[in-house]
Hints:
Order of helices and strands: HHHHHEEHHH
Largest sheet: 2 strands, antiparallel
Number of helices: 8
Low-confidence stretches: none
Shape: globular
Strand order of the largest sheet: 1-2
Amino acid sequence: MYYETDMIVSLISRIKEDVDRFILSELAARNIQGLKPVHGDLLLALFTHEKPTMKDLTTLVGRTKSTVTTLVEKLVRLGYVTRTKDTADSRVFRVSLTPEGLALKPHLVEISRRLVDQVYKDLPMADRIQLTRGLKKIVENW
Length: 142
């Protein structure tokens, strides 16, 4: 067992905690209430895909149907998104941003930019690319 490389899960967990703290701090500084870091991927998907179905969202964010349903319900309660039945198939729901949800875009884009700057601070581009490739391979293992 090689300790430095075997502690990957612990390091990823610590990074996740630091990232969540960073995002919550940035949201609070902008007086954005109710959002959690887990909502970010969903909102970013909605900024780039107009009225996706719930099924499309699960694929876009890589989460289970039940998780996406819970996240969307919370965003509906906060007034950031709406869920409407598809006109062609009433069993299908589509999700779209409200004006309030769309107004989050510049804030979330800026928070994301600041987060990436913090994560990669002092890390050369070649190392960034290698790290990203390695993490993608780990994700594929699951």
